[in-house]
Amino acid sequence: MLKQFLHKGMRGFAISLLLAIAMVVGVVVSSEARLAGNSRYAVVLEAYYALNPGHYGFSSKLYNGWTVSDWNYIITDTNAYEKVRNSIYPKPNASYPTLWPVADRNLFYDNWATPLPANYANLNRYGFYGGYGRGGQCKFFADLILFRSGAAARRDDNTHVLPTYSDMSRSATSYKKARVGDIIFIPSNGHTAIVVAILARDSSGNVTEVDVIDSNFIGTDGNEMIARHRIGVNYAESVGSTSKLQNYYVYTGVSYYNDAFGYW
Q1: Does some domain include residue 257?
Q2: Residues 8 and 101 in one domain
Q3: Do residues 257 and 173 lie in contact, with contact meaning Cβ atoms separated by under 8 Å?
Q4: Residue 218 falls inside a structural domain
Q5: What is the domain range of residue 109?
Q6: Are residues 43 and 20 in the same domain?
Q7: DSSP bridge partners of 73
Q8: 18 and 52: one domain?
Q9: One pLDDT digit (tens) per residue for the chain, 264 residues
């Protein structure tokens, strides 16, 4: 029994030592597991995880009263980041890992005069800047959440990225039918967000206000800050069409769209 105990203890010590070495040399160990069995719940918990490691829906940081990410979420799974970033599917600007030279022009732009997505590798500098966690452009962030939650983005070919907005528009339904775990989007200007709660309905049961988690909304376009906030028919987060729920559609092309939400 003692021999078996010592063997297990040495093995545990070895694993801990390897993890410690990986942290010292800057190697990110991807060990994240799906956070729930139910796909809709898994998407929501992954979005919560982007705000804070405790994945409870809030964080220690506020920006103008809204909950924002307080850690470097994207660096915790570099495999997911690389796979989503390097997707071969044609994607609009809103799907880029990042588009704006907010913190360091050399980090975010291949060329200062041309807004191309830089293939930067320094996620440590990008993912947590100015005390806030950042997630890239809005659609890239949604792609990343879907990939890391284990939920396929599309039903047709199981690719791990969302299609173009024109394609998404062909598989969409009204915002009035939004459910927890849905992906909502605006085709015209390309904002994408993840519904994490239904906040209000009208007398007919139609959804009129939702709680979402997204990137590049709070803090104005270009900050690429991960945040949780409201979007409603009669409630304006800020000036602009992305604040009005009636401008959004629900994307029905995700593999789990017909699944019910469940806490399991």
Answers
A1: no
A2: no
A3: no
A4: yes
A5: 39-251
A6: no
A7: none
A8: no
A9: 434 433 434 444 443 443 333 333 333 333 356 889 999 999 999 999 999 999 999 999 999 899 999 999 999 998 888 778 777 444 555 556 655 444 333 333 233 333 344 444 577 777 887 889 988 888 889 989 998 998 865 544 555 678 888 888 999 999 999 999 999 999 876 789 999 999 999 999 999 999 999 998 887 666 789 999 999 997 655 445 567 899 999 999 998 999 999 998
